[in-house]
Specification:
Length: about 220
């Protein structure tokens, strides 16, 4: 028996709905993987702040690793390790490293959650990922806001000059890794919002039946 016109239209709409949702889901997954790479780079790279033509010493600082030029030889002397909190020059840098590192782990965890699509309801997985990405964005914001509180450390002043203070960078400049960290918070918020939308759409992908106007009446 041929489908009624309304049923045919509903069937076509449902097919397009599923296809579009899957396409958006693939795009979301690709951008999530790209965001994982960005976050790892932001955490590892020591180019959050750096020297300029007016600084007393050459060098650069990251979350935990930093290098400052020797006044006599101009050779860069590097210190700092993620496994040794005592080698990090400021408590604010330590706190920022913790927040950004936790944000990175949450984003990596989001990518690991992709495997749950094979075992769990897709809508639930999207919502779990959305909350993880939202939490990662909040932690990244906190890390970026706390980091300048450590600019009054003696090591930073040695490179940037004595005018350097909390949230005042003196003669130094903000480098690309810090800017990328700020941009990444917007990426995380957008991905989280998209994930919430995909999770809600998944709940509507498979309606049990179609209610039609003009259906048989008793």
């Amino acid at each position: 028996m041929d489908l009624l016109p309304a049923q045919e239209a509903a069937k076509i709409y449902h097919t397009n709905y599923v296809r579009n949702a899957r396409a958006i889901g693939v795009v979301w997954a690709i951008f999530t993987i790209c965001f994982v790479i960005i976050t790892v780079v932001v955490f590892i790279q020591p180019y959050w702040i750096g020297d300029s033509v007016h600084t007393p010493q050459a060098g650069y600082f990251g979350l935990f690793h930093y290098c400052i030029g020797n006044a006599l030889t101009s050779e860069l002397i590097c210190k700092g390790s993620v496994l040794d909190f005592g080698s990090i020059p400021s408590g604010a840098f330590q706190t920022a490293m913790f927040f950004v590192g936790t944000s990175m782990l949450l984003i990596v965890g989001t990518m690991v959650c992709f495997s749950l699509f094979f075992f769990c309801n897709a809508g639930s997985v999207y919502k779990i990922c959305a909350w993880m990405q939202l939490a990662a964005a909040v932690l990244m914001v906190m890390g970026c806001m706390i980091y300048p509180d450590g600019w009054d450390a003696p090591e930073v002043k040695r490179m940037c000059g004595q005018k350097t203070d909390k949230y005042t960078l003196g003669n130094c400049t903000v480098r690309w890794a810090y800017i990328l960290a700020i941009i990444s918070t917007l990426d995380a918020l957008i991905l989280s919002f998209l994930s919430f939308i995909l999770g809600n759409r998944q709940d509507k992908l498979l309606p049990d039946d179609f209610e039609l106007d003009g259906a048989e009446k008793p």
